[in-house]
Prior knowledge:
Blueprint: H1 5-21, H2 34-44, E1 50-58, E2 69-72, E3 75-76, E4 80-87, E5 90-99, E6 104-110, E7 123-126, E8 135-139, H3 142-150, E9 160-165, E10 169-176, E11 179-186
Amino acid sequence: xxxxxxxxxxxxxxxxxxxxxxxxxxxxxxxxxxxxxxxxxxxxxxxxxxxxxxxxxxxxxxxxxxxxxxxxxxxxxxxxxxxxxxxxxxxxxxxxxxxxxxxxxxxxxxxxxxxxxxxxxxxxxxxxxxxxxxxxxxxxxxxxxxxxxxxxxxxxxxxxxxxxxxxxxxxxxxxxxxxxxxxxxxxxxxxxxxxxxxxxxxxxxx
Length: 206
């Protein structure tokens, strides 16, 4: 049987498609460095546990933090940690740490009681250096700076958030020129886990 040029081309294309169908398609790797991984993993090992904390420094005290303070390492994956920060009955805050492929991102997810977004939400920053196994810093990103300016609090453009993780202590710190706020949590004494933060469901924890 004589094959035309068109037939040969068709057969060649069919073979290429068949070969491609059997190939393994891999996503691009999510690269990271040891200090970021070690910091992330040190928090993740407490997944499912909650801890009580206290304000240890605040140079502009607010009654908003006079209630019981609880952090809950609630949901963990290989790429993201979700950590609600409860202040008494106020469950509006969740810290979200994400591996981005170029470092770690910290976002503050703020919700209303009905689960809707607060007008000031998802602000935070991204690591700009290696940091340390126990400490990472997150200077405010551009989205946050524009949000703060639009919200009438441009002084927050200079915010840097820091997190420290040691064997028996976790620290959340916010610092900028003339302002510092710090909360320490006792990791040696897990407490009863709280209900899901506003806008989340207990069905999707961990």
